[in-house]
Structure formats: structure tokens, C-alpha cells
Amino acid sequence: MVAGTLRHRRILRRQVRKLVRAYLEEDNEFCVCCEAIDGLDAINKAKDSKPDLIIFDASMPHMNGIEAAPKLKKLLPETAIILFTFHEGTMHGFDSVKWASMR
After folding, report:
1. Among 32, 58, 84, 100, which has the minimal tally of Cβ within 10 Å of its Cβ?
2. pLDDT tens, 38-68?
3. What are the DSSP E strand ranges found in the chain?
4. Domain limits, the chain
């Protein structure tokens, strides 16, 4: 669990994103095809790039990851989705059983 100010969480999110990207690109088996600023941007970019894997934050602005994941699964059923969060406490609107059944 990570505590801190909103500014610290933003910095941590940015660092985690950079670390994940660097880790994936280190191995020649992966190619990071794009990054999105929110869930709607992720859906639009996924339509074009048709990725094998989508990794995104549950707490993105405009359309969060919890809202975007089912839409992405419908659009790209073969695409794996990893959802992470820096949220503390209960995530409203997140049904883990429903999420697991989307696999």
C-alpha cells in the first residue's frame, strides 16, 4: 500500500508506467505500441493497434479503467487486460467476480 499526497501518487504512477514500459521493451518479445491518457483514448488506440495485452490504471480520468475494461473486452476478446490501481480502500463500481469472469 502506498500513502502520500496526490502529487506523490502522480509521480509514483508515472514512475511505475516508465518501469513497466522499460521492463517490457527490454525483452525483444514485446513491443509497446502506444500509451493512452484515459480509458476513451485507450479504446480508440486499441481499435487501431489491436494489442495482445493492455495494462492500465483503474483510476484514469474521463473514463476509468473499470469502465473501459468491459468495452475493450467486447471489442478485442482475445486481448489480455491487466488493471492496476493506487486506490486506497474500496473501489466503487469494481466487481471482482464480474471482472474475473471476463477472462
Report:
1. 100
2. 889 999 999 999 999 888 877 777 888 888 8
3. 53-57, 80-84
4. 6-101
Length of the chain: 103
- Characterize 59-81 residue by residue with b for buried, 16 or more Cβ atoms within 10 angstroms of its Cβ, and e for exposed: ebeeebbbbbbeebbeebeeeeb
pLDDT classification of 97: cutoffs 50, 70, 90: very low
CA atoms in the 13 A half-sphere facing the CB of 49: 18
Cα 68 from Cα 59, distance rounded (Å) = 11
What would you measure as the largest C-alpha separation in the chain, in angstroms? 38
Architecture, CATH, for domain 6-101: 3-Layer(aba) Sandwich (3.40)
